[in-house]
């Protein structure tokens, strides 16, 4: 097995948790926040975060149908609102950064559904879940296992 650390510094953990909590509060839509975090975690193949956020989404009343279709949200018809689709598209663009930036048209579609403050919080949420994904994947944290 390759050497790696399982340690997650308490200061890093607490700062990341505070950032996530602030972004979720500012977005003001807990259901959408979970969809965003699940989608980024799918892309990043973070089993730990997927397990956590799928559990939270279900506890918050998210339907199994929408959870199961999230990986194919573009083809899921009207299962997701235009606002949710804009957030998911932005999530994918930020998570992947294929061309090194978020395409203007993706940002503009998101800005049509979120005011500037909400958009800032949505971007913060996308950034923090990507940080969590990388922390957990790089440490190979198993689903349901201890995070630190």
Descriptive account of the structure:
This protein has 148 residues and is mainly α. Helices cover 66% and strands 0% of the residues. The longest helix has 23 residues, at 116-138. The two termini are 20 Å apart. The relative contact order is 0.21. The model has no long low-confidence stretch (mean pLDDT 93).
Secondary structure layout plus pairing:
Layout (H helix, E strand, L loop, with lengths): L9 H18 L2 H14 L3 H13 L4 H6 L12 H15 L7 H8 L4 H23 L10
Helix pairs in contact: 1-7, 2-3, 2-5, 2-7, 5-6, 5-7
Output the radius of gyration: 15 Å
The description of the largest β-sheet is: none
The structural class is mainly alpha
Strand tally: 0
Order of helices and strands: HHHHHHH
- Bulk shape: globular
How many helical stretches?
A: 7
**Strand residue percentage:** under 5%
Uncertain stretches: none
| Amino- and carboxy-terminal Cα gap | 20 Å
Q: Overall mean pLDDT score? A: 93
Helical proportion, percent range = 55-70%
Concise structural overview:
This protein is mainly α.
What are the key terms here?
148 residues; single chain
């Amino acid at each position: 097995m390759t050497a790696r650390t399982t340690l997650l510094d308490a200061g890093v953990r607490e700062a990341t948790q505070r950032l996530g909590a602030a972004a979720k509060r500012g977005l003001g839509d807990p259901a959408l926040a979970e969809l965003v975090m699940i989608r980024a975690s799918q892309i990043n193949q973070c089993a730990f975060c997927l397990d956590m956020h799928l559990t939270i989404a279900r506890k918050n009343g998210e339907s199994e149908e929408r959870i199961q279709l999230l990986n194919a949200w573009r083809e899921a018809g009207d299962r997701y609102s235009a606002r949710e689709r804009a957030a998911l598209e932005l999530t994918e663009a930020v998570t992947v950064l294929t061309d090194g930036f978020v395409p203007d048209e993706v940002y503009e579609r998101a800005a049509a559904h979120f005011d500037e403050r909400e958009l800032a919080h949505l971007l913060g949420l996308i950034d923090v879940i990507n940080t969590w994904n990388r922390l957990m994947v790089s440490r190979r944290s198993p689903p349901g296992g201890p995070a630190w």
